[in-house]
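Box 3.1 A note on notation
Throughout this textbook, protein chains are presented in two layers. The first layer is the amino acid sequence; the second is a token string describing backbone geometry. Keep the layers aligned when reading.
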Amino acid sequence: MPLRTFALSTIGLLTLTLSCAQTNPQSFRCSNHDWQSVQDLVLPYLGDEMQTAMVMQAQSSEYKPAAAADFALTFEDAYPDSVTKLLQKIGKC
């Protein structure tokens, strides 16, 4: 009987863990980010000249989000840590 209880508890815990992992609102998916989302993320921290540079970079890279994130990371001192971490994830897409 204890083995059956242990097995059921383990299965229940795994089910709960997997369901929470799938509904985690902070889960990251590359498909959720495009060039515009990178721009929206960094523009509040950039001056006018750097905003213009972002737009020019976007045009030259055909608006690829990873390229935009990599370019934006050249100014990473301007961003909070949370923005830098998100840009690094997008850059790996």
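The chain has a mean pLDDT of 77. Residues 2-22 form the longest helix (21 residues).
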